[in-house]
């Protein structure tokens, strides 16, 4: 079992910044990818950004250039620096860790961007 603990969500004005953090603990083994998904009511959860064990990243097109994902491999922690936030970025953001053998999501943290 893997536990993911997220922090850093909140309310911010459009154009502002937030930094999300997620620490993983438990039965973590093998190479894996850590990242962030988000979901709004009535919509499917979508991938925002991921980073694998080799440092390769993948971003949702609408956040590329504004969001930056990073990892502390020694601490099993992933971060998401979100700049130039827009009202359409408002969502519950979920931390994710996965590899061939497992996939886990965190409990989610609310990000609200006011116009």
Describe this structure in words.
The chain is 0% helix and 56% strand. With 115 residues, the protein is mainly β. The protein contains no helices and 11 strands. The strands form 2 sheets. Strands 2, 4, 5, 6, 9, 10 and 11 form a 7-stranded mixed sheet that branches. It has a 4-stranded antiparallel sheet with strand order 1-3-8-7, with no helix packed on it. It has strands at 2-7, 10-13, 18-26, 33-39, 46-51, 57-59, 67-72, 77-82, 91-98, 103-105, 109-114.
Number of contiguous helices: 0
Main sheet record: 7 strands, mixed
Structural class: mainly beta
Helix content: under 10%
Assembly status: single chain
Provide key terms for this protein.
115 residues; mainly beta; 7-stranded mixed β-sheet; 4-stranded antiparallel β-sheet
Can you describe this structure in just a few lines?
This protein is mainly beta and 115 residues long. It is 0% helix and 56% strand. The protein is globular, with a radius of gyration of 13 Å.
Break the fold down into its secondary structure elements and pairings:
Blueprint: E1 2-7, E2 10-13, E3 18-26, E4 33-39, E5 46-51, E6 57-59, E7 67-72, E8 77-82, E9 91-98, E10 103-105, E11 109-114
Parallel strand pairs: 2-11
Antiparallel strand pairs: 1-3, 3-8, 4-5, 4-9, 5-6, 7-8, 9-10, 9-11
